[in-house]
Queue: 4 jobs
Job 1
Amino acid sequence: MKLLLLPALVVLAVFAAALAALFRWSLLEFVPGSLQTGGLTLANLRGVLAPQYLGAIRDTVVLSALTTVLTLVAAYPVAYALARTPSRRVRSAILVLTLAPFFTGAIVRTYAWVLVLGNTVLAWPVPMLFTERGVLVGLVHFSMPTMILVLAAALSHIDPVYERAAASLGASPARVFRRVTLPLSMPGIVSGGLIVFAWTLSAFPTPELLGGGRVKMIANVVKDLGLDSFNWPGAAAFAMLALALTLALLTALGRLAAGRPS
Amino acid sequence: MIARLAVVALLAFMTVPTVVVIAVSFNPTAILSFPPSGLSLRWYANVVAYPQFRRAAVNSLLVTAAAAALALPAGTLAALALERGRLRGRSVWAAMLLSPLVVPGVAAGLGFLILAAGLGLLRSRSVLVAAHVALVLPFVVRSVWVSVRNLDPVLERAAASLGATPWRVFRRVTLPLLRPGLFAGLLFAVVVSLNEFVVSLFISNRVTEILPVAMFTYVVNYTDPTIAALSSLFIVVTFLVVWLADRYLNLAGVFLRP
């Protein structure tokens, strides 16, 4: 039976080789104007914290945190409806409307926001396109499907009997939600929040197109250094930062998931 | 009532951009306006006539077909091993197989770029195929795994006890019963690969680039609604696929109770 894993492991080995190459180049000295590299150095990793990039790192963390909170608030009612609706048809409609953006590519979805945030459809009172506000709207939209699916999975595990019991004992709907539903859905809120935060930390197409070069997140710095300046070692160091942040968050998620009975 | 309105408003927030793209794609003038002042198919004609999109469409089909053809058998065998094999550390294996999902696109993309440059493969589509296989593998494993879990081994034992060889059992009993999972896996592999952008941006050039990368370059350089037309085609195909999958494949089962 173990042999059956072999083809998949070959695929993963290639993937791992790519990440190993990334790691190695993050430690090689950059020779400007050339794709040749010098010897081993920690300069690239130190360069990640250079003053000209601190703004990008700060913007990344702030935008990711705001995206996480806003997405949680916006996704919760939809997830609740998806998990609890008695009508098969409503559930199918919500699921299709949620999953279609999930599978529509990043470029199509981001381009749609270029149209909406530019002043073609609505006259916005404040500039939206090429600002952090606009990027934030795009990021929330991008994270919605994932958050809805994670929250709906958590909510569908809660037995509605608990909520009915609280209501029959005289709790108002708001109180039932605050004291029963919300605490019981906490595992979904934590995992959805961590997944979206980790994912947004390395968002690329949204800040690239909606930020128009004026809003830079970590992934945009990787692209600028790697594809425009041909500074692969520098870009690799930034990519390692994105990878490390993601892995740290997902390890935390794994710890939390392992620590609770499911 | 307020709750219901909120859900409708939020679903509208998710859907409106799509509607705007489709509306703009029929705009008769190059200056974007909404609502459109008339109906025109000129941007659709533009999509078909633009040589770089044609070349990219061929690349997309080749890369997606190759990636799906490689990922489907590899993922199916892995799903069988995960459910049936006496593996130590099953959850570790599962996490490894799903790991390409969580690696940031720019990290995987730059890694494949550096690896391909070292091997002298930068001008070839094989790098794109290798990356896409890894990126769609988690979706295949997950979809097929659900089907394997629902498959009662008694049916296979019955066939074997009646004298079928292991290969015959696999071909006549196991595979047909796994068909929904295989179909879902194939579907996800195709949709994910066709729409993949970030990793592909790093490892393609003007000759090998796939459609999303060509679209990105076009958006950065031009402002006319040609991309709206091409996006609309992507949207319609994706909606159809998801709708069909929901009708015939129990999507709620795959996504809500994994």
Job 2
Amino acid sequence: MTGNAESTKGPMLEIHDLHVAVGGKPILNGIDLTVAPGEVHAIMGPNGSGKSTLAHVLAGREGYEVSRGEVRYLGRDILALAPEERAREGLFLGFQYPIEIPGVGAMTFLRAAVNAIRKHKGEAELDAMDFLARVREKARLLEIDDALLRRPLNVGFSGGEKKRNEILQMSLLEPRLAVLDETDSGLDVDALRIVARGVNALRGPDRAIVLITHYQSLLDYIEPDRVHVLAGGRIVKSGDRTLALEVEAEGYTALAGTAA
Amino acid sequence: MSTARESVEALDDYKYGFVTEIATDTAPKGLDEATVAFISAKKGEPEWLLEWRLRAYRHWLTMREPTWARVHHPPIDYQDAYYYAAPKATEGPKSLDEVDPELLRTYEKLGIPLREQEVLAGVAVDAVFDSVSVATTFKDKLRDLGVIFCSISEAVQEHPELVRRYLGSVVPYSDNFFATLNSAVFTDGSFVYVPEGLRCPMELSTYFRINAAKTGQFERTLIIADKGSYVSYLEGCTAPMRDENQLHAAVVELIALDDAEIKYSTVQNWYPGDADGKGGIYNFVTKRGACRGRNSKISWTQVETGSAITWKYPSCILEGDGSVGEFYSVAVTNNLQQADTGTKMIHIGKGTRSTIISKGISAGRAQNTYRGLVRVVGQAAGARNYSQCDSLLLGDTCGAHTVPYIEVANRTAHVEHEATTSRISDDQLFYCRQRGLSPEDAVATIVNGFCREVLQKLPMEFAVEAQKLVGISLEGSVG
């Protein structure tokens, strides 16, 4: 595996007492979460529990007011960093609703992103041929063909194509920490299996993955090390893989009621 | 392929803002018949041309500046300008070795190493510096093919019959205020004649550069494609930084005979003025092509990123039956730039077709207007036009305006017009930035996507430069 061994000694991600509001309305009310390198964490929760807010705050999206707490990534407080700085440091967000960019080919965009990150790492930019070879290799696993990559980014893509393309981006950008925001939503079983295969291929001792999901079915394919239930802007329960099954059996309401 | 990311590197300010120090041989300031005669004499012109210039000048005195465009500027004092400035020692260099090294260095700063271009790009360059052509390459090779590619002054001397026959035949000397002024005082420009049946094997290109202080630029370009011929002509421009506004009133005339095709591409990158609107070029240009012959075709592609004010409507007069006119345009305005640009498609012949694709991008406090006329005369049975005008706004202090004029006098004609206005969304910016792109690169990427249909019409070597320019000219527009 590639990666800097020194930086993987401590936690990948540490969130302490994170409070976030949007337009003055509190959404996250004290999140604590620690993710170690090599781990996969699932964050589950009902609609409106703050899952996407957490993902956006981690990635640095504007419009969120952090009133308390801190977020450390590889030991460094990242809340003051711009989104592109976090991305270049290896933080990837898989979007719940990938954004359309008309006129910009998916491949062109991917190459710009890969080279932006390579440049930050002090690596040479990939030339078109090398890049193409890498993309094809990764795309095969995700059953994405060249034709899709020549189309404008996400424009007219099906739900499954969009999500597979997100995972393709992730696999080429090789992040240290990937936050996948409802990557399973809107996918049929076949697409879910393909996406899961792509995610599993990226599991490794130097990489951590945070899966944000509403349903536990994704976790049939990507087995998490830890599962957290988010409700009312707090993590109300944490456990192992079996917690997800508990959620499925009992629903969020019952679990939220047992919150500490 | 987008090179948007590399486009914005290391170019914070207007890159080409330097002035080359070269002594100029300058006409006295101001404009009168003596100035016109001075220019004509300097160029050793025949009597008929002096007469034509003087007719234009006298007509100009009766005209007023047009006021219909959505542009505003203080009154121009036409007497407070120099109308002729030529580099010293204009004997006419036989090779690049004879060109003033200072001049060559200027071109190098502009990224136009002539020697490299000769070898690498296979592009013949007729470099206009101030108002006189100083270096022409590939002329011999072109001459062997029968292509005439030279300065218009040279054409007046060497090919007077062609110049006399076609000069002013598309844009008459009385056409409009700025074209008429140009007819009186034009100093130089390019001349191209492509003989019957020849597909010109190389892109012809000219780089313009405004240099001497207070020198109005009055380029005159004339391109004739004889029957069954094809030529692609590239025009690219940059200018050094100046505080005073500089007037540029060029005229370009294109003539396509039967089955001939002319592709004319422009990348315009003149100094736009500073962020407060101080300085910058006034670009008041008349460009028009006549599809004289049957099944002839004229295609204009322009990427306009520079100038304080752009007033420009590259047009096609579709006289020949079955002739085709195209206009592909990207106009980028930032800060206090103003652009009023578009086209005229005049359908006269039967079965004539035209396509208009216009992409306007506005940022800062800029105003960007598409103004276009599609006219189908009574005899133009079966004429077709498709127009698409898209505007993209960055921020909420700029303006985009679309002013289509459609006049159809034949009931078999089909005319379609589509227009959209959109913004770059926060979602798009965040998505790009989450993938590692800086805000500037994100904007450049999104805008280049918006312009793609037009940019891909450019010849390859221009497409890359144009993509870079689009990104560069929008710098500072997100914050």
Job 3
Amino acid sequence: MFTKSRTLLFLTFMVITILVLASCGPAPVSTPTGEAAPSEPPGNTVPTVETNKNITMVIAEDPPSFNPIVSDTGYDALVMELVMLGMTDIDPSGNIFPELAAELPTIENGGVVLDEKAGTMSVTWKMRNDIQWQDGVPVTADDVMFTWNAISDPTNGSWIHGSDYIDSVEKVDQYSFTVNYSSIYPGYLTQFGGEQLAIWPAHYCKADQGFVAWDCGRQPLSDGPFTLKEWVEGDHMTFEKNSNFYQAGKPEIEGVVIRIVPDAAVRKTMMMNGDADIDMWINVNTINDLKDSTTAKVSLSPTDRWVMRLFMNEAAKGTIDSTATPHPILSDVRVRQAIRMAVDVDTINKQVFYGLAHPVWTELFRPPYVCDVPRPTFDPEAAKALLEQAGWKDTDGDGVRECHGCGTAKDGYKMEMQFNTYAEYGEPLELTQQLIAEMLGNVGIKMNISVVEGSVLWDLAENGGIEQSGNFDIDLWDDGYAGIDPTEYLSEAYSKEAMTPGKGWNFFRWNNPAVDALIGETYTLDEQTRKDTFCAIADFINEEVPEIHLFTVPNADAYSARLEGVQSSVNDLVTWNIADWKIK
Amino acid sequence: MATYILRRLIQTIGLLFLLSIILFALVNLAPGGPLSAFGGKRIRPEKIGILKRQFGLDQPLPAQYIYWLAGNDWTQIDTDGNGIKDASGVRKGILRGDFGFSYRTRQPVLQEIGKRLPNTITLMGITMLVALAIAIPLGIFSAIKQYSVFDFLATTFSFAGQAVPEFWLGLLLILIFYAWLKNPWTGEPLLPPGGMFSLEGGFSVTDRISHLVLPVLTGALGWVAWYSRFLRSSLLEILPQNYLRSARARGLPERRVIYRHALSNAMIPIVTLLALDLPYIFTGAVLIETIFAWPGMGRLYYQAAVERDYPLLMAVLIIGAAFIILSNLLADILYAYLDPRVRYE
């Protein structure tokens, strides 16, 4: 009798506690325009879709902020494109176009002045004078100065590409400023724009909160096509048209809702059901599933970005100097060439990627720098012959070769290696890894496969990061350069300096003085020289095989059939041209 | 009893302190670090120094722990990377309620948790209540009608409920109730695929409930199975006991014998179990929150773990640990309260 009533009492207490705790719901963020936070529940903020001029995007996770420079997740760049402008941006074909800039500064129009003798340059930007923040304050050179000062602050700042070459940034007048470089810097056109950097409002952002953490990074003041209305973390963000947008009559879309839907299968179902208009970065499974859908279409970027590849360590596992401690197997170029001949990219593409992947065999495969490198042939018999010639033979009949006069290891050393990839990519990459291990097994190379977290693979050497500390034999992951300029990427991936942990990403520990010299020659504004030099480097990579380029997967975004003008791009997020989208 | 509770509370503080050291060490020594989440696969060397200073990772681990625990506003730190300690820190440490800021969003950790906690409590609380509302009658009828058709069906259902993985069931339910079944009057999907509420139409109770149906069903199934099986076996142990026979012999109606005399004793272990399950209401359920796009603690924790967002990770772990320890204490106290035979001295 007693016990029962007490049990009931306890249960009642629990119910009340839960209800009380549950009623303390999250407060909606206040809007930057200074309007009072909406007093009604968050569900009431978007008007009923009568004209149906609102679109819904579904994305996997919250953006950390509107400032992609800080954490670079892609989701931050997606929302930045909705509300913020940079000096320039890049279209899907790799053409740079002005946003805040009135024109692109070049040598011809006097915007770029070279000092050949000193090896320096200065770039003067002219800005449009008809662009305003959503509160009516004009966007001026003061905002650029403010943004640069915030980035270069040693305590709360960050880093943008090429910022080490900048000596100073000076305001010329209200709508122009000059950047002085200590070197010739070919990437200057996208330095204050592109997919990552926005110009921030000096009168609204608080400098003392710092570039990386300021409130305006999460409640931005817009000079783009939309303004942020509400952000309920983990659930949704709503945007409405910026009536102050400088392009008259744009955007046509009245409002944007971004819903956070972590599961890819649910996002796909929502697209097929017509409840979502954009699903960014869809994988090959989704591309394949949507091919017959009437409600959802797929936009493919004209070029791809990430090249799946095998990184082969020329230094012994756990070391970083390939000359002092060469890898017992992989330091012989013939072995690396044999591995390339033994991997059948077309089979991987067919079996894992529905034939949607694109085989790629050089770093310089996309415009404007396309090099003519012959495609390697898949020939396991030739691979076996080359391994025999290199002194790797299977004499004990266990299917795994051993060293018999190989020159890089002791006789009897087994041709057995560790083979890593990362977990976050998911099943297709793990299947690819298994297929490659099988293909190499067929020519007598035993691969022990393992799948690790990305945060372990790419961490700093001092934290045991596998790549940086050289603690691997062969790794499989996707890499490549962002934007349209491979200069810095090539220097950071193939120079001798980049072999040292923390100095770059020469994980193959490929040491070639000729390539080092060529890399130095790419820092010029002479396009023909740059192109020839890039291709000379590509030829070296092709001959010495520090890595094996395999394929790219399409960079794709799904969009609803009622939208027009959606164009996926590897140079930016799908929202790069949202102001031009139309609704049928 | 009061001394017992006091003693346990003091032990709890000691235990939490010890746990904080172990967790801090585990989280920091686990392979992989937070910087790899910045800049994708290639952490810019230029960014490394800046980020380390901003996150306080430039300090040796014991100093990091002390700063995390007690703050660094009492000491000088190097803020601009020139090797000279130039300003005092701004962190207060968890002892003064400052859990630091999330590496990902640069927002205070407690603020991040505060935004997610109510959502998780709503979902998990309702899930638990629904689970109990189904499990208790199920367990009782299974026990009094042992080996009946109903009992066999309930048993089968329970085993299935334990065995079915949540992510599979969740996706299946979305396919059925969102993609396939339509509301015959409006032609709209019968139930939404996820989220907490619709953005159109304003607040409505039916809308809230329609968003809860699928995640609650998915989450409750396992608990229903667990609690109903437990209650069934607990009742079966009690039913043949002598005090019930004497109750029947005194002429009490069977209904009264079962519900008042048998059930009240059979519920004691259930209430203990329930108290031990309470921490889930805080920690949430990663899979359910992920599939049904529910912005709760589980997803927050999972993302923090994957991205090695140490301050957020530590806060969730420590607060979660405190919940578990306190729930255990609650279970022990309740046990003594419900069962007069149990006494703590």
Job 4
Amino acid sequence: MPDLHFHLNGRATATEAEPATLLVHLLRDTLGLTGTHVGCDTAQCGACTVLLDGQAVKSCSVLALQAQRRTVTTIEGLAGPDGRLHPVQEAFVACHGLQCGFCTPGMVMAATCLLNETPQPSEAQVVHALEGNLCRCTGYVNIVAAVQQAATAMQGERA
Amino acid sequence: MNAPTEAARFGSGHAVRRIEDPALVQGQGCFTDDVQPAGQLFVRFVRSSVAHGRIVGIDCAEALAMPGVVAVYTGADLEAAGVKPLAPAGGFKQADGTPMNPPPKRQLALGTVRHVGEAVAAVVAETREAARAAADAVLLDIEALPAVADAVAALAAGAPQVWEGAPGNLLAEARHGDAAATEAAFAAAAHRVTLVIVNQRLAPSPLEPRSVLAEVAEGRLTVRLSSQMPTGVRGGLVHCLPGQSVDSVRVLVGDVGGGFGMKTALYPEDVVTAFAALQLQRPVKWQAERVEDFLTAVHGRDLLSRAEMALDAQGRVLALRVRSWANVGATPTGAGVAIQLLIGPWVSTSIYDIPTLSLHISAVLTHTAATGAYRGAGRPEAIYTVERLMDAAAREMGIDPAELRRRNMLRPEQMPYKSPMGQTYDSGRFEQILDQGLALADWPGFDARRAASEARGLLRGRGIATFLEWTGGNALEENVAVRVTADGFIELTSATMAMGQGIATSYAQLTVDVFGVPIDRIRILQGDTDRANGFGSAGSRSLFTGGAAAFVASQRAVEAGKPLAAEALEAGVADIEYAAGRYSVAGTDLGIGLFELAQRQPGLAIVADGGAKADAPTWPNGCHVCEVEIDPATGETKVVAYASVNDIGRIVSPVIVRGQVEGGAVQGIGQALCERVVYDAEGQLLSASFMDYALPHADGFLGFKTAFDQSIPCLTNRLGAKGVGELGTIGATPAVVNAVVDALAHAGQGRAAEGVQMPLTSETVWRALRGDYGAADKLPVG
């Protein structure tokens, strides 16, 4: 099995992966990071979204070996070292942006990517950024509100 | 000490952060597939690619020889091992009065396949990949037979037959009401309206697909799965698996990634996975792929109706007459039949004073997946029907649709009211809800908004739905165990089941009301049949049954601590008072903390059980008003305003109930505008992925105005709460469709617009604007 070296949630990680193994299965099955979820088989639902070199990607559509010498951030790597929630996580809680929580890790990662690139997005930009993530519980209402609240909080932190 | 006021901020009626959320937003939830015991095996099913066929042969030799393959099972293997089919649907009769006779629900097909995706064999292997490869190597020889996928075709003369126990594909029939009185009312009516109504088939689509992990430990079978009804699952496993009893089977449920009714059933795949674990004495996992949920999880709705309403000259409804055909699939579930033949009919007359009705419903077998519970479960179909009729009648008579509804609403002084369906509504002030709904929606301002839309080249329509629904599942009793622990927690154990609805937080808030401690001291334990058993969570019942039990059990625990405190404080029990986490002796400053008292007990805990039984179901209700804009060039239809006023009785968790109504409404909008399970004429499933089955996305409507009127508590449970989980879904579909029909009618289509059928995709609306409503809707004869 080929070796795989990459940065995962801030740590240098050495493992190995079969050429056909998907990143999501490496994370869940080999590395035990089960916060990244699988909700479909056709790259529609976005529950598996992680950051690859800061970009939101669907980890069901990326081979594990494509992470070679790159940086991956999953939902488990988002909170601060002191356990403090990332502003996007905090806003999802504060705004009731989740119900069953299955889509939430992917939603949070997609939103984090958006806010890193577009710190003060319009509602239309938020909706556009989340078009690849499905939620069946919330109707998206509070998810969009949470992303907007997170944007405000992160702006405050930068100020 | 400011603990009482501090803790009270977390009690019922207050907006709190959900106790479920910190784990879920950090990826620390525990969904079934997150549990990965060492050495677990993986199941993969070999499924029929045809809708109807005779199994000629199953060749497993090549698969069995492949690396990593541990076992391959067929229907014959299960039968030989004494595995019984799932409990059959029952409780209804055929047209000739004999009991219905559904086909057996086998876990793996035997002899005949009856729908696409039906499991024929199961491969068990060391890895997911090995299981997949070996499943591909199982050679199925199935002789395809003619198939039929919709109720109209299934009832036609000469149609392929699904099962010999249902001649003509008619499984069961139900009639409700008074046919003669209804006929007389129609004969005397000044106005009659008739609609053909299609409640299309839907896929519930919780984001977490079905998932099950079975293990055998110390002689017992433990099955962990994503379910709303752990006790029912246990009972089903015991029914199917030889030699098992309720004592030998434990069902565990962790986090459930959405249920919506789909996860109330025990599925064939669950039984096969448990069977494999028993055979192989190793942990066995089955994780459904999304396509497998589309193929073999229950679908919802699928009801075809000819609906008629008779009114007098003043617009008073005299009678309702509905003839319906429910496509319940090939191997129907009990719920799938009951939902259409009984549960939906219960709300047929809704909040209106309709003196008589006549319903005739047939359950029809087709070569499709079984239907079952999906959010609303019968009430969306019935409410959609009566609310579409109300609009048609208003158009027929030239009366404002809100005014026509008002003329027919039950009045508060009629409560308790017994409907022609024999259902008793305990409470309701429907006109009060209507008035608030019209105000919230700015009903009088619509003409100006329509003019503004038209100035931008867009059509605008407005729709209203005023309605009630039934909640409770007719399982009205719950028990809760409370344990106050020495390490400072109050643990409640309940047989209801969390699935995203926030029930743990709501129970915790009710517990705070009693104990007066901060909410972070409360833990809610669910999903373990070794600890609690009951009906589970369905039918919007969990709060008004389980929440009442949580409240009672908490009160019992406080009382149970009083003699213990008296002993610790060397005082009389009558002198012991409790407040805010502390027992004290009245009139003194002597006292002991709740958790310190627990520590002093031999079992390091104060324990109590408590139960509550509601007297009857609850009847939540609402007024939902929707406005849509349509681009006449493309037919694209957008919800642009949505206001709702809801009576759900007393509110425990205000943030949660708003999320339930709005998230539920988006599911109802999904039925109205985009969702539809599609089989072709040969029974092939065309909508088998999220590419082809259109769920609402984030670019839908976000601007809900949602209000609640708490002045009308439920009178049949001690909380005064009414169910909330399905209300939004039930109201949204008719409100949206009535708005689209209004826009089409105003755009020159007139009454013809009433022929439009869901989902109202751009193409459907574009065609309707050009007078094309598809082939005239066929209805079966009779």
